[in-house]
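[job 0412] stage=fold_complex status=start
inputs:
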Amino acid sequence: MPRYRNGTQPVPFPTPVTQPFWDGTKQHKLLLQKCSACAHVFYYARTHCPACLAKEFEWVEASGRGTLYSYTVCRRAQSPDFAEDTPYILAAVTLEEGPRMSSLLVDADPENVPIGGPVRVVWDDDVSADLAMPYFTPA
Amino acid sequence: MAGLRGEAAIVGSAEWAPKRKPDKLWMGLEAYAELARMALEDAGLKASDVDGVITGTNLMEARMLVPSAIAEYLGIRANFFDVVDLGGATGAAMAWRAAAAIEAGMCETVVCLVQTQMSPPDPRVEQAAVARDWGGGIWGSPQAEFEIPFGHVQGTYGYAMIANRYRYEFGLKEEQLAKIAVEQRFNAQQHPKAVFRGQPITLDDVMNSPMICDPLKLLEIVMPCFGGAALVITSKEKARQSKNRPAWIIGAGEHLTHRSVTYEPDFTHSPIKPSADRAFAMSGLKRSEIDLASLYDCYTITVLLTIEDAGFCDKGEGPRFVDEHNMTYLGDWPMNTHGGQLSFGQSGLAGGMSHVTEAYLQIAGRAEGRQLAKCDTAFVNGNGGIMSEQVSLILRGD
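[job 0412] stage=fold_complex status=done
writing structure:
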């Protein structure tokens, strides 16, 4: 039984370009890309820097800390895949390194979710043999 | 500034009443043919006058080469054709593209056609599962990999996150959003085609409707319908001969930054501002000279942000603006007099078109029981995705 989900949700299916990111999740590493030309740090994994379109980059490990930019509590499932999980909290997290990231906020009180508050990554290892899902929880 | 010269105008429209379920099986081409016929009849023009076609991406009978399928079926000899793929902003985007093509001398009379996207009713094959997230659930798409598995699907969650962020930064009472829904429902009572005609609502009704994604409640969320719409846009020469008062397209702007709302640069400062600023600068009109605001309203929060970002009040003043104005067709700041999509109905891409159509009908003096005493100018905003594609228009009557 997955730690945070009931097992009906879709699981990411990596491409050759995104594979290193998902390989990192197996070791509980949240990997970002840093552009070699302009030093922009970005998420999600892709071939070209969204700030300057250079295609040289290095993978850098994020601290896993960030702040909650915004959230919503889904009282009614917005996808049939999540029907068993209501209420669940969707979040946009601003990582310490700069990029924003879509995720779930877990182990949080739906009636008291602090925007602007600190969050940290937690990992769900049970969704797939090939990867772990990075979720966030109030820090 | 350079831009549209205001030498093309909307002179006719057609709109099917949004329905919860289709009343018959319309194939896409059949629907487009009937919508075009109705709009041309409304404009007082002949089928042979049409030499331009703009349509949405969806046609159940064709996955590509859509304009040619339509031109052939309708018998149009087109000098200009385009497909617009801008979600809810498609209708507004079609209008200025048609005007630009006409002013550039590419064509003289354009029909703009939209309808609800339907799955092909092919009796030979099993229905494939609908791709999640507005067509983004395809292997290799960032949505399929970094959004959908995290539950970030469809639109409601995104607008709810925007509303929560807005409340955090500027303060917002849920009653202020609810007032938008109530006043638009009031307007819809005077539209014979509105899906919620005959069902007025109160502030309590909205506040007591089920919470879907905090803070958005059921009655602040648009209801999917089936339908279709068409506009006829023509040259100065033809528009001057029209039996209807033309609505000249005198300003337009667009802006787009993201698909997933997570990557919107700032949740509370939407891409509407550059779009609206361009449209106003092109038109030469001031905000205070606008008689009708026709603002895309998939959710109440969309309207609030549009009022601010289109420049009708300062950033952060939207909630007070909503409190202080009566936004009905009887009020001091008429907005979405057709009921908006929240109360008129959202028939896919035709929902976005309804804001253009209403602006045209008001300027033409054809808005029946909800007609404004004076409507010579209108501001229209189209919005796609989650505050993503933004298209602004300014229309003016003679």
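[job 0412] summary: The longest helix of chain B spans residues 28-43.
[job 0412] exit 0
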